[in-house]
Each structure stands twice: as structure tokens, then as C-alpha cells.
Amino acid sequence: MKNMSIRHKLYILILIVLVPLCILQTMGIFYRYEKAVDKKLFANREFAESLNLNVINYFNLLWELEFVTGSTIIAEDHLHDPDHMESILKAVQYRYLEDLSWVSPDGTVIASTVPHARGTHLGDQEFFQQIQQGQEKGVSDLMVSQITGQQTILVVRGMYQQGRLMGVMVAGLKMRTLDSIFSSGRVAKTGAFGFVDRQGKIVYYSGKPDLTIAERQFPSDSLIRRALQGDVILTRHFQSHLTLEKQMGVFIPLPEVGWVIFATVPVAEIIDETITFTLREILIFVIIAAISFWAAIKISNHILQPVGKLQQVAISISQGDLSARTKIRGNDELAMTGMIFDQMAERIQRLETGREIFLQTAAHELRNLMAGVKGILALIRRKIATGKPLHQIEDKFEVMEKEIDRLSSLLNQILEAFRIQREEGLLSLNFQYVNLVEIIRSALIPIQSMVSQCNFILDLKTQKPLWILADNQRIEDVFRNLFSNAIKYSPNGGDVMITIAKVEDSALVSVKDVGIGIPAEHLNRIFECFHRAHHLKSNDPGGIGLGLYICEKIILSHGGTIWVESVEGKGSTFFVQIPLHVAEDPSIVNL
Ligand code: ADP
């Protein structure tokens, strides 16, 4: 993981989110499939139970019919008149019945709707023997009727008079009509239902009404056996011996007649039904997952793009290309980082450029000064060698003195600037209550004694002292720097107007010259360390770009501000604003 790129880590993150979603979705699909199967099984069971009622109702109807018919025969005393009995039987024969017969208690057919059936003996049949043994009504298993010779089910009812078995009504079902009697609707498109008799033979199967004898027999190991023993069986899976398909369904015992009802559906049908919506769900899920994955990759690429850019620019800068920038724009954290990074690079570039300019200008300035001093010294040496009096070149000593003063002022500025930078703008100041007007007057004295074409005018807008809490030496340095700059950058001379005013709770001083001015593009950088607006220009009077930097730091340390207004070629006005303080104890006021 440590050595992996952020891109790969993001991809893993995306997968961490997507994989559980896929697992959940797959589990959901299986769960819904199981639910669909359960639903189908439940529907099958309900269907089978409703069939159960249908069948019992139907048999009850037949037993009732038999009872009414048998009772009529007994009541009208037609027991010895088979012809009349037959006319009664034919009159009531229900259209779903194949035949209806009156059988004597010993099992001989006395009268029947079937011609020539008289005399047929049913006494050896199990269902008949049960009636003989006292059972009131019953239903045979699927059998070949001795009366009709047809495969049928016989519905029998013993007819009693004062507890004595008078005869037995036997009705043969029309097997072909079973479908119309029972099919009240199917559980599924290809679902089927049916009845199985006590022997495990299919009495009726809706899927194929004309079954062969062999097909009718359920295998001995099938679930039907358990259902015949009275268990309700619900199965999700069994092999049908009729269709050879995998089926699911229910087997419900029918205790009144000892049969079993079954309702089955091919598993393939459930799969077909569920597969359609499952496939649709899978398809939708795959599309959504693919779109999410694609969007996640796009977003991660979008997120990583600035990171890559940052990395690229950082490498360029580390290799010395200080002009490289990320140019990332936007409002998010990375865009902000990019912008801060660009600002940082900008600052490094400026400092680097400043450092270069400083080295160049400082070297240039120092060389000029040293050359001047050296020239004067050479002159003095020549005068001494030729025995000429030194008083003739007294003025040269003065010049040398000034040059050395300038040199020491330059060195002071450099030391001061480095100290400010090291102490991050914090200056150690000696605060006192001082009158700003006096400080400015004192700063003017050495300037006015300088040989200059400039004429300094002091315009006092207030006659009152302007008390400030300040390090008077530092404040004097600031104004001395501003005054000497005014002279330095006014090669043609002109008035330098110094205005001192009280504005609200502050003192506002402006120093206005009519010199070369400052080009507009330099105005907001003029207070930066080493920044010089006229560097390498023909009108550059020389300097190292530290004076205003130090001035600003001093003014800021006094809670004030300094700014400049200038028009190139017309002159500049520097403004200094310092908060005023009222001296609480005049004895500590240092004038
Ligand atoms: P230096 O004068 O040694 O270069 P400063 O920090 O005093 O350094 O001034 C910075 C720059 O501001 C100067 O190089 C000059 O270009 C410009 N500047 C300062 N004062 C004036 C002025 N009064 N008129 C025109 N330009 C000025």
C-alpha cells in the first residue's frame, strides 16, 4: 500500500465501495428468487386446498344424489322391479356420470343405466366389501368397471332401512369430464394438478388426461407415498416421472377418500419468470455499477489531475525553473493548494530575482564607492609625494567622508534588512512619547545641509505637537530615507513638499516630490525587499532596494501604514500615517 500511487489507492477505495454493493445485490437476487419460489409454493398449496374442497363437495353431491335416488327406490318399493328401477336411475343420471346402478347387498347388479349390466357381480371388490362391512359411503380406486368395462372411479353409497343394508348405489364417473369439474384455474402457465388413489395411481392429471396404465402408477419411492400416509408435502424440487422435468409442488392428503391431491409447476417456469426480472435487475445493476465506476474513475482522475500538476511544478521548481506555475483554478482544497503553491513559487521567484538584483546592485554600489574613495586616496598620496600642501584638496576629504558615510549607511541597511528577515518583521524598538513634528525637523537638518537642487518646504497643518509612542531614532530613519529618495529620484531638482497634518486619531505625513516618478506596474511592489523600480534604466541613480522595505517594517511596528502615489515622469508622494497617543506623564516625554 505504501508504495502504491494515489490513483491506485483511489481505485481500491472505489472497489471497496462497489464490491460489497455487488455482493449485496447478488444476495438480493438470490433472496428474491427464493421468495418467488416460496410464493409459487404457497399459491400451489392454496390451489390444492381449494381443489380438496371441490372434490369433497363433488363426492358429497354424488353421495347425496345416490341417497336420494336409492331412497326413492326403497320408498316406492321397487326393489323387485328392475325395469322400473332402471327408469328411475336413468331419470336421475347426472351428466357427469358414466353409469348409475343399484346393486344388491351381496354385490349383484340389479338395475343399471348400462344395458345388459344386470347380474354383474361386484361383491369381490374391496370398495364394495367395505360397504358390506358397514361403511356408509366410499370411493373406489381407479379401476376398470365390471359394469361398463371402462376405466373409472366408482362412487358408492350403502342404502339402509332400519339399519339393514337394502342395496348399494354405485355411480361410475365420466373420466373425461373430470377436467371441466375440477379445473378452476391453474397455478401457473404450465402448472398441473391431479389426484392419486390409495394405490398410488393417478386418477386424474390435468397435464395429460389420457394417461396410459403404466404412466398412472407413481414410483414406489416417490413423495406421493408419504402424502398417502397423511403428510402434507411441499417440495422445491422433484423429478416428475410423467414429464421427466424438474418440478416443484405440493401433495395434500384427502382423508375423506384416502386420496392425495397434487399441484405442481415445472421449476423451469419459475426460473423463466424470475430469470426475466433477475436479468433485468442484473442488467440495470451492471449498467449502474459501470456508470458509477466510470464516474468514480473520472472524478478520481479529476481530483488527481491537480495533484499531478502540483508534482510536476514542484519538480520543475526544484530543478531551478522558478517560472513554473500550476495555474490550477477553482474553489476546492486542491485548487486552493495549487493557488497557494503558485503564490509561494511567485514569492520564491521574486526573492530569487531580488537576491540577484541585490547582489548585482550591492556589488556595483560598493565598487563605485570604493573606487571613489580609492581615487581620492591616490590623489592624496600624489600630493604628499610631490610635497604639495594638503589643504588645497580639503574638499576631497569631505567627499571621501561622505562616500564612507554612504558605504556605512548601505551596510547598515543590509544588516537591518537581514535582521528584520531573521526576526520575521519584528523589530526591537525603544518606545517613548515623542513629538512627530520634532522628529521630522530633526530628520530634515542633515538633508538641508546636503548640496542639492531640491528645495524642501515644510507645511504644518497643525500648530500643536503630534504625540506618538515611538522609537524616535527609527522614525527619523524613515523620514531621512524618504527625503533622500526624494532628492535621489529628482535629478532635475524641484520642490519637495512635506505636509504634516492631524487626521482623526492619527498623524498623516506626506513627502511629495516632482521627480522621475514610479512606473505604475511597480507601485504595489515598491516596499518589497530588494525591489527597485528603475533598475538598469538610464535614470537609475543607484541603490539596493532596501530603504523602503525597512521603512515599511518600522512604520508597521508602530501600528501605522505607509503607501505611495506616483505618476511616472511627474513625481511621487509618499504617505506615512501613525496613530497619535496622548502622553499621560509629560515628564517622560522626550522632545
Ligand atoms: P533604493 O533607493 O536604494 O533603490 P529604496 O527601497 O529606497 O531603495 O527604494 C526602492 C525603489 O523605489 C527605488 O529603487 C526607486 O526605484 C523607487 N523610489 C523610491 N523613492 C522614490 C521616489 N521618491 N521617486 C521615484 N522612485 C522612487
Q: Specify the overall morphology.
A: rod-shaped
Adjacency order of strands in the biggest sheet: 2-1-7-6-3
Largest sheet: 5 strands, antiparallel
User: CA-to-CA gap between the ends?
Assistant: 71 Å
Overview of this structure, please?
This protein has helices spanning 6-75, 82-92, 126-132, 178-182, 213-216, 223-228, 267-318, 333-385, 394-422, 436-449, 472-488, 547-557, and strands at 97-103, 109-112, 137-139, 143-144, 151-152, 154-161, 164-173, 192-196, 202-205, 233-239, 246-254, 259-266, 432-435, 454-460, 467-470, 494-503, 506-512, 561-567, 571-579. With 591 residues, the protein is of the alpha+beta class. Strands 2-1-7-6-3 form a five-stranded antiparallel beta sheet, with helices on both faces. The chain has a five-stranded antiparallel beta sheet with strand order 9-8-12-11-10. A hairpin with a 5-residue loop joins β1 (97-103) and β2 (109-112). The radius of gyration is 60 Å and the shape is rod-shaped. The model has no long low-confidence stretch (mean pLDDT 85). Residues 481, 485-486, 489, 513, 515-518, 526, 532-534, 543-549, 572 line the site of adenosine-5'-diphosphate (ADP).
Output the keywords:
single chain; 591 residues; alpha+beta; 5-stranded antiparallel β-sheet; 12 helices; binds adenosine-5'-diphosphate
